[in-house]
Every structure is written in C-alpha cells, then in structure tokens.
Specification:
411 residues; single chain; alpha/beta; 6-stranded mixed beta sheet
C-alpha cells in the first residue's frame, strides 16, 4: 500500500540554517519559502516553541503570525507530544481563529508555501473540518488513502452543490491512487492475457518463436545470404474475446469499513482491466447492492457507496453464489471484519456450499486506519474450518493470489 506522506516537518527546510534535531511529527518546523527572512531571525528556542506549540506568549511579534496559523489546526493541545507536558505548560491555541478557511489557507500559503498549505489542509480535513475541502487544490494535494477516505466520509453529509465542487478533488485522488496501485500490481498479473505458442495452425504466425525453432534449418544462397526454412512453424493461440474467469468481490460496507472499501474499489478497478477476467462488485451491509456496472469507474462507485449499518455476510455470499456458472473458474473474495450480525450457521452453510461446488474462495480481513488487521478471530477460525482461508492481504498480495489461480498455480 502507498506509504504515509512525509509530515510537514519533514517537508520543510530553512535556507541557511543547520538541520534541527529530530523532533516529534506534528506541526511544520520553522517557516520556509514566504517566511524565509523572518525564519532566519528566529532563535532556536523560538523555533522549538513554534514546533511544539508551547510558550507561544514568549514568541517575538513577527513569529506570532506563524503560531496563529498553526494553532488553527494544532492548537489546544492537539499536536503530537502536547500531552507530554505537565499542567504548567500553556499549550497552544491561544490565538484568534481565522474568520474563514479561505483566509486560513491564504495565510498558510503566504507563510509556508503551497506544499505545506496542502499538507496542513489535508490534515484538517482528516480531522473532520469540512470547510477546508473546497480550499484543497486537486492539482497539488498529495494523494493518500487517508485523505480520500476522509473526503468520502465527509462528502456523504454535504449538499449536492458542495459535493459537485469536491468531485475534481476526489477524481484526482482516485485516479492517482489507482494508477499507483496498477503499477505495483502489474508484475503479479503479467502474462495472464498473453497468447501461448502452439504448433497447431489457426492463430497468427509467431515469428520470433518460429525463427528460434528453425535455426537448425538454414540454407545459404548464392549471394551469401542465409535463409531460415520454417519447417516447424509456431503459431499463437487465439485470445478469446470473452472472459475465461469470473472474480466476485463481496465487500462489507458496514460501519468502520471505510479504508477497506476504498482499497477494494481501487483493486477491483485494476483487476477489471485484465482481459481474461470478468470482475463483479457486491457491496453489502444488511442488504446486497450489485455495483458491477461501476467497477471501471471507481470514482462513481465510491461516491455511491454509503458505509454504515449492520453486517449480513451470508446474504452477500448467497448473491455471489447466484453469479457462479463455472465454479472451477470462479473466484470469490470476501472483504470484511467478519462480525456477522446474523446466525453464524447461515454464513458457514454458504461457505461450505461454495467450497463444495469448486469455487475458489478467499476471506480478506479488514484493516484499520494504521493498516493493522481488524476482524473477529473466533468467526474467522470457523470459516477456515469450513473451507475458506482468511488472511490480511495487501492489494498486491491479493493480485498475486488471483494471478496464481488464473495460471493454475495453487501455492
């Protein structure tokens, strides 16, 4: 998965100053770009006060502007390390709040530059501030799953007029993350749609393979040229237009599944581009919604999905079972925390039915915001006993599993 972006402190350096010692991530370090002249006049102690948000009353007048801009997000003891100080510390957040997100964004831009402004605004959006979403620049903000998840969760409660202004931002985040994911997954999917060489005529002549197979059958002409006589021509098998395999994503969209839903949508979009694979997307909470027609457009899929509600995994698997035509060439991937809200017997029965029919079944455990697996271990153990492996997989590992099955490998 894409790593977390560098913190603003890592992104800022001060011209003409030696590097500061390692500090807790949180606030940006001393100002750069627009505030370069002022930053050179800041004493090391003042730079630490800005970074930690402590003793801001002792800052010189020309540095309080920076403190006010940072306190809008990191004030009131919100910065990392704020709890490390006893009650004697004054904390941050004593400045006056900015009248609007636009004015705050303009101040951040003037003091720290565009890159840090986008970083701070993205963190504010991640913290639940919907007013900063319209100030994020789709062309310069750093794409991340965390930001995309936050924007999507906040967009659900916005009126259509504000949502329309957010679409360019969401579109760019989805496109960039899907492109990065596709690049990382491509090696695992290499060769799935490549025609295989054969000696049976019918396909196109495979010229490189024909030359290699007939190097022993050469003839020299009178003018000194060497001709290869294709006594054993090699052809390429025809690639079928229809998909040979069917992949069904069964994705839990109950509460606290935001990050897993985003990853599932992006992964389905990438795998949907494999010519030999027909990809389906079923979203379920207590009801099942078939979003297969939106697999090629993850932006539309993510904007239509509403995360929340209960969990009925058995219903999702029952719908997936109705899509199976050739069990041995069908892959069913369940993405869930496996907190089944209905009697467990129904879920185990669906699993056993799919496994006994020959379907390739895999359970993918949900991941929390830190990337750690978060799922019901007792239920997962019963699912494994019923025949469905359960694992915490990254999209790349899932692509390898899909590629192995399509190639006939079962490792």
């Amino acid at each position: 998965m894409p790593g977390l972006p560098p913190t603003p402190a890592e992104a800022i350096t001060v011209a003409g100053e030696p590097a500061s010692p390692a500090v807790p991530a949180g606030r940006p370090a001393a100002p750069a770009a627009g505030g370069e002249a002022a930053s050179r006049r800041l004493a090391p102690a003042d730079r630490w006060r800005l970074l930690l948000g402590r003793e801001t009353g002792r800052l010189p007048a020309d540095a309080r502007r920076y403190a006010d801009a940072l306190d809008e997000l990191y004030g009131m003891g919100k910065g990392e390390g704020a709890a490390d100080f006893g009650p004697g510390g004054d904390g941050g957040g004593q400045g006056v709040s900015f009248p609007s997100a636009r004015e705050w964004a303009a101040e951040l831009d003037a003091l720290f530059g565009t890159e840090v402004r986008e970083e701070v605004l993205a963190r504010a959006a991640d913290g639940g501030r919907t007013d900063v979403l319209s100030e994020l620049d789709p062309d310069t903000v750093r794409p991340s799953i965390e930001l995309l998840t936050s924007v999507l969760s906040l967009a659900g409660g916005l009126p259509e007029q504000r949502l329309a202004r957010l679409r360019p931002l969401v579109r760019r985040l989805v496109a960039e993350l899907a492109r990065e994911l596709a690049t990382r997954m491509r090696p695992a999917l290499t060769g799935l749609a490549t025609p295989r060489p054969t000696r049976r005529p019918g396909g196109r002549l495979n010229l490189p393979a024909t030359l290699r197979a007939n190097l022993a059958h050469t003839r020299r002409t009178g003018d000194g040229r060497v001709l290869v006589v294709p006594e054993r021509p090699v052809f390429s098998t025809r690639v079928r237009n229809e998909a040979d395999w069917r992949l069904v994503f069964v994705v839990d969209v109950s509460g606290s599944m935001e990050a897993s839903v985003v990853w599932s949508a992006l992964t389905a979009a990438v795998l949907g581009g494999v010519p030999t694979l027909s990809t389906h997307f079923l979203a379920f909470s207590t009801q099942v919604i078939d979003l297969t027609d939106r697999v090629a457009d993850p932006l539309s899929l993510l904007l239509d999905v509403r995360v929340g509600g209960g969990t009925h995994i058995a219903a999702g698997l029952a719908h997936a079972r109705s899509l199976v035509t050739v069990p041995s060439r069908t892959l069913v991937v369940v993405v869930s925390d496996f907190e089944e809200g209905y009697p467990l017997g129904g879920l185990l029965g669906e699993v056993r039915s799919l496994v006994s029919s020959g379907v390739h079944l895999l359970g993918c455990a949900a991941l929390d915001d830190t990337g750690a697996p978060r799922y019901s271990v007792p239920v997962a153990r019963q699912l494994v006993a019923a025949g469905m492996p359960v694992a915490a997989l990254s999209p790349l590992a899932l692509a390898r599993w899909v590629g192995d099955r399509l190639r006939g490998e079962t490792r």
